[in-house]
Design a protein that fits this description.
It is a single chain. This protein is an alpha+beta fold and about 140 residues long. It contains 1 helix and 4 strands; from the N terminus they run αββββ. Strand 2 and strand 3 form a beta hairpin. The longest helix is centred in the first third of the chain and has 51 residues.
């Protein structure tokens, strides 16, 4: 029985360890990128919720050209929002732009654009002259 048949040589062991190490480093990098992508997705999802809420709030406010800065929290993450309402070229038609940034950052994480129409004044309702009540039988 020769020495070759008794096991692996030191060179073979070192080469296999090097290949295994490169594979583990690649897997670790892939896992790190997946975790980072997940946290970015969570940040954008919560920022989207904040932006949607800001659009709804702007829809409840009286229509006028205005810029409103506010702060909001979603999922434990603090955001700053800016809602800008401007009149468009069309009469009584307004554009609402919302931008959301993570607090302390200048990078826009989410944005929304919506439009509102100012309702024309309504005429007072008059009781109809031809409506009659049914008499009980």
């Amino acid at each position: 029985m020769s020495a070759r048949e008794n096991g692996f040589t030191l060179v073979e062991v070192l080469v296999s360890l090097a290949i295994f190490s490169v594979a583990i480093i690649g897997l670790q990098r892939a896992a790190t990128l997946a975790v980072r992508g997940t946290s970015q997705l969570e940040l954008r999802t919560h920022a989207g919720f904040v932006a949607d809420n800001a659009v709804v709030i702007a829809g409840l406010e009286p229509i006028r050209e205005v810029s409103v800065d506010a702060a909001a929290t979603s999922g434990g993450i603090r955001f700053s929002t800016q809602t800008v309402t401007t009149q468009t070229e069309l009469p009584r038609f307004f554009e609402v732009n919302v931008t959301v940034r993570q607090e302390g950052s200048e990078t826009v994480v989410a944005s929304r654009r919506a439009f509102r129409r100012e309702q024309p004044p309504r005429e007072p309702r008059r009781p109809a002259d031809d409506v009659t009540e049914d008499e009980p039988q």
